[in-house]
Specification:
Elements lengths: L6 H11 L5 E5 L1 H5 L12 E2 L2 E2 H4 L2 H6 L1 H16 L5 H12 L5 E5 L5 H5 L4 E3 L2 E8 L5 E3 L18 E5 L8 H10 L3 E5 L10 H8 L4 E4 L12 E3 L3 H12 L2 H10 L1
Parallel strand pairs: 1-4, 1-9, 4-5, 9-10, 10-11
Antiparallel strand pairs: 2-3, 6-7, 6-8
The site of nicotinamide-adenine-dinucleotide has 27 residues, from helix 2.
Length: about 260
């Protein structure tokens, strides 16, 4: 496939999404990959020869909390040193161009790159890496404000603290799922997600089954690919700025209105 083979799909994707009134953007690890944060299933799948899918589990933490904390501290530093890219900034523009409240951005990413790109309200479906929380009580603190938190016991009850990420095998925070359900999306743009991790993977699937348009940006095929309205086989940083340009164009919106 030539570098530009994905470009015709962008126009189809824009036509499919342009009439959405409540567009959900669902961003996975592939979106942050373009900012230098590795995905778990790619080359970032091993850390000091430990499979990260074993480190990011309650069992891994119970077995060796300091090892897991070392990995998370290293990831925090890597994320803090990274910068949002043009694709992430394009999502901010999309939100600003659409009438207020018409674009909601939800992510399985635990980093803060979307917030730093200027996105208004990021729904974190798999937690936030910079939060440190108690394993026993409801205390949590923000490591960006005090980066000693992970080395100390819980200041409220004295128990061990853990990263604010949602681990494999743990439940997705109900408030995050309720926020997405309450938004009642009528279209979805899935960017850089393998769509393998439940329950989040069901969100675009259900929207599609209800007849809503779903567009995927991913250089690789996913379990969702056969069902989506349109797949854009490209990197997020290349495809998102072009798609957002089209979606925010009055001409494109007018053409789509005439066709429907
Ligand atoms: P994943 O690692 O399972 O899949 C990433 C997907 O992104 C793949 O389908 C891949 O083909 C695609 N991709 C890779 N590079 C891309 C690019 N430049 N542009 C577009 N797509 C690209 O990720 P996931 O489905 O989001 O979920 C796995 C879990 O891993 C999540 O629970 C998440 O919490 C965690 N995770 C988070 C981060 C982060 O916070 N940045 C990074 C790695 C993993």
């Amino acid at each position: 496939m030539s570098d530009d083979a994905w470009r015709p799909a962008i126009a189809r994707a824009a036509a499919a999404l342009t009439s959405c009134r409540r567009l959900l953007v669902l961003a996975g690890a592939g979106l942050s990959a373009d900012a230098g944060i590795p995905t778990f299933r790619g080359s970032g799948g091993l850390w000091r020869n430990y499979p990260v899918e074993e480190l990011a589990t309650p069992e891994g933490f119970a077995q060796d909390p300091e090892l897991v904390w070392d990995w998370y501290r290293e990831r925090r530093l890597q994320i803090a040193a990274s910068q949002p890219h043009v694709g992430q900034r394009a999502l901010t523009l999309l939100q600003q161009h659409f009438p207020a409240g018409q674009v909601l951005v939800a992510t399985t990413n635990e980093d803060d790159l979307l917030e730093r790109a200027g996105v208004n309200e990021v729904v974190h479906l798999h937690g936030e890496i910079f939060l440190t929380r108690c394993t026993t009580c409801s205390w949590q603190g923000d490591d960006r404000l005090d980066n000693a938190l992970s080395f100390l016991p819980c200041p409220r009850c004295g128990a061990r603290v853990r990263p604010g990420s949602v681990w494999y095998g743990e439940a997705v925070p109900i408030a995050a799922l309720q926020r997405v359900a309450g938004f009642d999306p009528d279209g979805c743009l899935v960017v850089g997600s393998s769509c393998l991790v439940q329950p989040v993977a069901s969100i675009p699937l259900e929207l599609r089954l209800h007849g809503h348009p779903v567009v995927e940006i991913n250089p690789e095929a996913t379990p969702l690919s056969e069902l989506v309205t349109c797949s854009i086989r490209a990197l997020a940083k290349d495809a998102l700025p072009v798609l957002v340009d089209l979606l925010t164009s009055a001409t494109v919106r007018e053409q789509a209105r005439r066709v429907t």
